[in-house]
Amino acid sequence: MDTQTWKTRRGSNPRLETDQVIEIPSTPTGEVRHNVTPTFKTALIIASWYFSNIAVLLLNKYLLSFYGYRYPIFLTMLHMLSCATYSFIAIHWLELVPFQQLVSRKQFFKIAGLSVIFCFSVVCGNTSLRYLPVSFNQAIGATTPFFTAVFAFLITCKKESGEVYLALMPVVLGIVLASNSEPLFHLFGFLVCVGSTAGRALKSVVQGILLTSEAEKLHSMNLLLYMAPMAALILLPFTLYIEGNIAAVTIQKAREDSFIVFLLLGNSTVAYLVNLTNFLVTKHTSALTLQVLGNAKSAVAAVVSVLIFKNPVNIMGMTGFGVTIMGVVLYSEAKKRSKITLH
Fold first, then answer.
1. How many angstroms from the chain centroid is the CA of residue 73?
2. Does residue 211 have a pLDDT over 80?
3. Which of 238, 306, 310, 330 has its CA 20 to 30 A from that of 88?
4. φ/ψ bin of 159: left (φ > 0), alpha (ψ from -120 to 50), beta (otherwise)
5. Among positive and negative, which fits the CA dihedral 282, 81, 205, 56?
6. Which residue ranges does UniProt annotate as crossing the membrane (predicted)?
7. Which residue would you say has higher pLDDT here, 338 or 187?
8. Of 93-102, 142-151, 206-215, 320-329, which gets the smallest average pLDDT?
9. What does pTM read for this prediction?
10. How confident is the model at residue 216 (pLDDT cuts 50, 70, 90)?
11. pLDDT tens digits, residue range 34-65?
């Protein structure tokens, strides 16, 4: 009786008799493990876009108004040289986008014409920062849709819907309120800032006219690659004639204070990052998202500049800026609805 068969002993532990299959959870794939990565990447790109846009404004303001480096044309030329260098690296070495060659001499002259408008807009914008606070500069810059609609009508006879034109009224009303109540208002600064805003709008309209054929259309990164060196060459005689031997002045300043080298290099690099992040935001979101972010960016830049530079603001000025931003939002919505109606 003491002897038990193997079968009896085996039967004494019923848990081992059943052929249980224990399912071990599979290791998540890289896609599942990192499903938040695309969202995080997009958020990082948007944050970089905000940082670069606001940083270049604040650095320009600091250099031109507070540090005493009062050479906006030369500063713009440095920006253009930086954009040309970094664009070459991004396209030819990093291959962020395919390289596009110019197809004709006619296309070259079209891009040269855009470069002239581009120079005018950027130089005027940088010059205005010598005389106006960043907050007021951004309020004026927010009126770009108004000038775009005006130039589109004057040059191409393109008419918008009544709703679109109606939405532009608060854009203009807001800037009138802000101008009348701006404590640091400067007439020349105001005029060159308006010129910068109009130039930016004119460039977008002219670009849409000149580079219309499929053969001549250029990716924004390639367009910058061609426009930046052209713009630098255009600015060179102006900076020499108006601002003098600025290279010698800069070298002398660098000997006295080496921090100026860091400021100029950092400023020029951030100026390129504005264009790079602008492309990346559009790539990872949409042009409409970029437009919405741009509306918010003006307000954020204005608030940050007030916190840093402590320039005085009043209720009427803030109200005018808010009315302008509201008008830009209404304009964007009206344009979107008019496109849907046309289609």
1. 20
2. no
3. 238
4. beta
5. positive
6. 42-59, 71-96, 108-129, 135-155, 162-178, 223-242, 262-281, 315-332
7. 187
8. 206-215
9. 0.83
10. confident
11. 455 778 888 898 999 999 999 999 999 999 99
Q: Give the per-residue pLDDT at 343.
A: 59
Burial class (CB in 10 A: 0-12, 13-18, 19+), 307: exposed
Give CA separation, 229 vs 58, 74, 88, 214, 217, in Å: 24, 14, 11, 24, 19
User: Which among 198, 194, 222, 31 has a CA at the least distance from the CA of 111?
Assistant: 222
Mean pLDDT of the residues in the chain: 86
| Residue with the two structure tokens 């004119």 | 202
- Residue found by looking up tokens 């006879």 in the block: 157
Whether residue 292 has pLDDT greater than 80: no
Contact by Cβ (8 Å): 63, 250: no
What does the alpha-carbon distance between residue 63 and residue 137 come to, in Å, rounded to a whole number?
16
Integer distance in angstroms from the first to the last C-alpha of the chain? Answer: 94
pLDDT at position 215 is 77
Instruction: Give the pair of three-digit tokens for residue 155.
Output: 């040059």
| Radius of gyration of the chain from its Cα atoms, rounded to whole angstroms | 28
Instruction: Give the 3-state DSSP-derived string for the chain, with helices as H, strands as E and coil as C.
Output: CCCCCHHHHHHCCHHHCCCCCCCCCCCCCHHHHCCCHHHHHHHHHHHHHHHHHHHHHHHHHHHHHHHCCCCHHHHHHHHHHHHHHHHHHHHHHCCCCCCCCCCCHHHHHHHHHHHHHHHHHHHHHHHHHHHCCHHHHHHHHCCHHHHHHHHHHHHHCCCCCHHHHHHHHHHHHHHHHHHHHCCCCCHHHHHHHHHHHHHHHHHHHHHHHHCCCCCCCCCHHHHHHHHHHHHHHHHHHHHHHHHCCHHHHHHHHHHHCCHHHHHHHHHHHHHHHHHHHHHHHHHHCCHHHHHHHHHHHHHHHHHHHHHHHCCCCCHHHHHHHHHHHHHHHHHHHHHHHHHHHHC
In the chain, where are the structural domains located?
70-342
